Amino acid sequence: MILEPFQYFSPLSLDEAFEILTEHHGEAKIIAGGQSLIPLMKMGVEMPCIVDIKKIHELKTIELSNDGSGKVSSVRVGALATYNEIERSVPVRRNIPLLAKTASGIGHPLVRNRGTIGGSLSHCDPAADLCATALALDAQICITGPGMKTRVLSARDFFKGPLETDLHNDEILTSVFFPVSNMKMGYDVQKLTLGHGDFPVFIVSVSLHYDGVKFTNAAIALGGVGETAVRASECESLMRGKESITGEDIREVSRLITDRYDPPVSAELSPDYTREMLSVYTGKALRNAVQMVTG
Ligand SMILES: Cc1cc2nc3c(=O)[nH]c(=O)nc-3n(C[C@H](O)[C@H](O)[C@H](O)COP(=O)(O)OP(=O)(O)OC[C@H]3O[C@@H](n4cnc5c(N)ncnc54)[C@H](O)[C@@H]3O)c2cc1C
User: Do residues 241 and 169 touch, judged by C-beta distance below 8 A?
Assistant: First the structure.
């Protein structure tokens, strides 16, 4: 449990952080909340140089951003926003309530106080709560590198595999943009955990948009059923464009999901049980989301 020695840097600006990352290229590792990195270090994974980004204030902001014509188009969540800050943020609660709900259910209070959105998405655990919800919400990930070169990727393109993203060693995930819709929203997030506050075995995150006549958008993201969080696109298309979503539609989608996706193998749960629960939780999330729109 004793950590190996490491160099520690605590830059006050992005420029300073990139200088350190460039100088220690390949050896430097960013730390944000430390909720995933410190456990890895305690397990003996060597991190010779740690760059603590917590003092870079510009990474903490959560704000509305507009499309240039003055209309609010998205909520920009800084990489260092903790789960607690996201849950309590007024712009998030008003415009992206699914994100607030997801953040409020992560782990224990200590984890929610320290863990950050940037850390969770960069760590890219296939069953992480925010990875699934970022996918469901069509989040755009903003990445900055040396020379302040910035690129923006969809969450779908950002996640590459278990604990693997498109980030390069000398880049920092700086913020995440969540598009804002002016339509009626239905949403829910449901997950199977072994105990209260435990990491999800799997997670289902659902977002629906309704224009008053039909469901214009239906997003179902699943975590824990593959190498990264995934969108169940073939199920979404069964609901998109419909004027109403019935109990039979929901049962059909739940059936399709259990046919297509393999829930993770776990020592504690039988495969049949986990598969059945995937169907039950998908149905529950969809029913709750539909009811918010039509109920
Ligand atoms: C007891 C416990 C329970 C947990 N339960 C859950 C749970 O139920 N659901 C869940 O989703 N998670 C859970 N977690 C994980 C938690 O969400 C972590 O906080 C998260 O995975 C990492 O966020 P962090 O800010 O702590 O990142 P860190 O641990 O600091 O970093 C994680 C990784 O991301 C990189 N990184 C961090 N920030 C950036 C950035 N801005 N740019 C580029 N790279 C970056 C680091 O280099 C590192 O590789 C749990 C953790 C613990 C310890």
Answer: no
Please check whether residue 187 is in contact with residue 289, taking contact to mean a CB–CB distance below 8 angstroms: yes
Ligand 1 neighbourhood includes 60 CB (under 6 angstroms): no
pLDDT at 2 over 80: no
Expressed in angstroms and rounded, the spacing between residue 111 Cα and the centre of ligand 1 is 9
Distance CA 181, CA 190 (A): 22
Taking the centre of ligand 1 as the mean of its atom positions, its distance from the CA of residue 37, in whole angstroms, is: 7
User: Which two structure tokens, joined as six digits, stand for 188?
Assistant: 């829910």
Domain positions in the chain are: 7-51, 62-179, 184-294
Pairing of strands 49-52, 7-9: parallel
Residue closest via CA to ligand 1's atom 36 equals: 119
pTM for this model (two decimals): 0.97
> What number does the ligand 1 atom closest to the CA of 38 have?
29
The reported pLDDT for the residue numbered 3 is 81
Domain at 184-294, CATH from 3.40.1010.20, 3.30.1490.20, 3.30.390.50, 3.30.9.10: 3.30.390.50
Does domain 62-179 fall under CATH 3.30.465.10? My reply is yes
**DSSP secondary structure, 72-112, as one string:** EEEEEEETT-BHHHHHH-HHHHHH-HHHHHHHHTSS-HHHH
Q: What's the CA-to-centroid distance between 239 and ligand 1, angstroms?
A: 33
The pLDDT tens digits for 222-246 are 999 999 999 999 999 999 999 999 9
